[in-house]
Amino acid sequence: MAVLTHYFTIESTGSAVFEDRGSKFIGYTFPVKTVIDFKEALARLKKEHPKASHFCFAYRLGLDGNNYRVSDDGEPSGSAGRPILGQIDSKELKDTLVVVVRYFGGTLLGVPGLINAYKTAASLAIQVTPSVRKSVEINYTLQFDYTRMNEVMIILKRFGCTIHQQEMQLFCSFKVGIAVQSEKDFLKQMKEIPGLTLNAER
After folding, report:
1. What is the pTM of this model?
2. Could you give the domains of the chain?
3. How far is the CA of 29 from the CAs of 6, 57, 91, 137, 160, in angstroms?
């Protein structure tokens, strides 16, 4: 099985509107890392749109693709959440939430009409939100003497590591992310620094 080295996600929010027979469907995109992020985004939208009739959504979290959820929020089963998720997956997006807010216009659209409306609103919102290609990273904790700081920083910069956390005292502790395809060379160079210990967070 091939190792996943890159993935696509979004880093900003976006919105777009689709209308059909008087009903208004407003698609919103959100970058989310956790279920808490999702709940906060949905709560904000419900506050913004107190008179909306439905808040249908889908999200996919993490890189393995197993953490996802869809909701039809009272619409006929399968007419909203699944079409929204289909648009997220068509762009291969991870850590992404799409909510479609519906204002009912008085005319029933039927299941095919609803599927089209939710799918289109989600698609339009995703189109106006730039997607970014990111490296899959392995997280490491590094511990080393302060006198080795310069050597450590040179290697971190060389490999374009993400520094998630740093404590700099006489003995330093860093939490960093390294692109999976560079991990082997990164470890080799780090292990040449005397007294440095590193542990993977798998």
Report:
1. 0.83
2. 6-133 (3.30.230.30), 136-201 (3.30.70.240)
3. 21, 10, 13, 24, 28
